[in-house]
Amino acid sequence: MREIVLQTKKLTKSYGRSTALDHADMTVFKGDIYGLIGRNGAGKTTMMKLVSGLTEPTNGEYSLFGKTGMAAENEKRRIGCLIENPAFFGNMTAYQNLRYYCYQKGIADRKQIDEVLELVKLSDARNKKFKTFSLGMKQRLGIAFAVLDNPDIVILDEPINGLDPIGISELRETFRRLSRERGMTLIISSHILSELYAVANRFMFIENGKVLKEVSKSELDLECSRCIALGTDDTAKASTILERQLGITDYKVIDSHEIRIYDENARPNIVNRTLVQNDVDVMKIHESGVSLEDYFKKLVGEVKS
Amino acid sequence: MINLMKADLYRIVKTKGFIIFWLVSFLVSMLSIAYHEPGGIMLGGDFDLNGAQKMDIKQAAMNLVYYFLLIMPVFGTITAEFTEHTIKNTITSAVSKGKFYFAKTVFALVYSLGCFLGANYLFYFVNRAVNGSKYSSTLGEYSKVLFGQFPVFVAIVSAFVFLAFFFKKGAAFNSIVIITPLVYSLFISIFCEIESAQKITEKLVEFEVSTMIGKLALGCSQSYRTDCYIISAAITVISCVLGYLIWKKREV
């Protein structure tokens, strides 16, 4: 069984009458690259602020490495964060800023500063003042800060904001390396679905402070990929016919009324005819398949309706 | 918490405030040493600088200048974190909000008061070396005067720390702390015009910050000294407790 490193239970944050996060449940396993997807103001940053200790929950709780309450507070040293915009002292260089945080975190080995600067490709700018940095450089320095002391969990809020396409691609590779080589668990938020999809292995969709869905990449692929959606009262009998008479094995029984066929060779008219000939009532049959954007829109739409 | 203070010490020496503090202290001290006259800032404090005290003691009576200079260490230590938004880096990775408050308060107090003592002793030793005993007292006498003023400066820095956490923004903090002694003097002027408020006016003048600093240096009654220390202790405790309570409730 995979180790849970971060779990929230009914985590709620209200500011006066407005609720920024509403009974949010989230489970992050060790080694995950966890994508937090939502529109601006959906509650992604609030979720990150809560688990990083920047703000206190109104209700609910969270556990870090299986510990809750004060014990979880002590585990926060194992988290590296970049929340909202990267912030550093403008009159200090990249190196000096990271050295300042080395003192704060009690990191004696100064080599780590050069290592993380190299990791985010800022070695050449190590002696440049932060106030002279471009937005992309600031983001990268923020990521360097987040991974400075090799934390077990890295929380990055909109890390690709302000980066050019090459920067985004390099950062994507950096995330994979951090996960693969250093065994870090990454929680990354973004409203750019395609970018998160390219790097994450688990996703949480959030809207208006409510968690819409938590899915793995394979589940998401399954839900978004092209398929034939088949509506019937007798999914058991329909499954048998699909396998024995049509030789279709790549399908999934969604619930007691729906089967999704992913076999690329399956044709709706043949499936329909075969099932009807075998006395299986077909309520609906149509080709399906949505883009990530459409999938997200559909989720949001379901909640609103 | 110690790590946080080490980090602050590393950073603070790189700030402009650090350079300005020492530059202004140095200039004020050097002018006094060169002209054999105490120099600094006065806000119409009710004390006499024409007594028989030596020049260094009179200079200590003008220590109100450190009210304004000590704004810089507190600004650099606390409000800079809010202005640059770096506070979220610290709270998410190094310490909790509560520990942040304590670490910053202790560091601001130790650092500011260290600067106050350091600058004054620097003046003392240079003055002693340049002008000799004609213009300088013994180290013991001078230390007695400085440490006699010390509780007032502890209260001043504590109040600054409270205001830094309260206002968070550098501009608001600076405006308030700079204007406060002037507004206090304005109140005294207004009360002076009210005949029925003469007693209150006298008390206000007596415990005006520059008057306290001056009288504690040049000599005063034991009861006045005690009153000054009680007021200073009250300001220190109220500032620290109130600051913590407000800070704990604030969103970062």
CATH class of the largest domain in chain A: Alpha Beta
How far is it from the N-terminal to the C-terminal residue of chain B, by CA? Answer: 19 Å
The structural class of chain A is: alpha/beta
Low-confidence stretches of chain A: none
Beta content of chain A comes to: 25-35%
- The number of helical runs of chain B is 12
Query: Tell me, what's the shape of chain B?
Result: globular
What's the architecture of the largest domain in chain A in CATH terms? 3-Layer(aba) Sandwich
Unreliable parts of chain B: none
Per DSSP, the total helix count of chain A is 11
Radius of gyration of chain A (Å):
23 Å
The largest interface is: A-B, 30 and 25 residues
Oligomer designation: heterodimer
Order of helices and strands of chain B: HHHHHHHHHHHH
**Average pLDDT number of chain A:** 88
Element-level helix/strand string of chain A: EEEHEHEHHHEHEHEEHEHEEHEH
CATH superfamily of the largest domain in chain A: P-loop containing nucleotide triphosphate hydrolases
Keywords (chain A): ATP-binding, Nucleotide-binding, Transport
Organism (chain A): Ruminococcus albus
GO molecular function (chain A): ATP binding; ATP hydrolysis activity
Protein name (chain A): ABC-2 type transport system ATP-binding protein
Overview of the structural elements:
The complex is a heterodimer of chains A (305) and B (252). The longest helix of chain A has 18 residues, at 165-182. With 305 residues, chain A is of the alpha/beta class. The model of chain A has no long low-confidence stretch (mean pLDDT 88). Chain A is built from eleven helices and 13 strands. Chain A has helices spanning 44-52, 69-75, 94-105, 111-119, 135-146, 165-182, 193-199, 217-224, 235-244, 268-277, 292-304, and strands at 4-15, 18-29, 33-38, 59-64, 79-82, 153-157, 185-190, 202-207, 210-216, 227-232, 251-255, 258-261, 282-288. Chain A folds into two domains: 4-220, Rossmann fold; 226-288, Alpha-Beta Plaits. In chain A, the strands form three sheets. In chain A, strands 5-6-7-3-8-9 form a six-stranded mixed beta sheet, sandwiched between helices. Chain A has a four-stranded antiparallel beta sheet with strand order 11-12-10-13, with helices on one face. Chain B is mainly alpha-helical and 252 residues long. Chain B has one domain. In chain B, 78% of the residues lie in helices and 0% in strands. Chain B contains twelve helices and no strands. Chain B has helices spanning 2-12, 16-35, 55-61, 65-69, 71-83, 87-93, 97-131, 139-167, 170-192, 198-206, 209-218, 222-249. In chain B, helix 5 runs antiparallel to helix 7, helix 8 (139-167) crosses helix 9 and helix 8 (139-167) runs parallel beside helix 12 (222-249). The radius of gyration of chain B is 19 Å and the shape is globular. Classes of the chains: A alpha/beta (305), B mainly alpha (252). At the A-B interface, strand 5 and helix 3 of A face helix 1 and helix 6 of B.
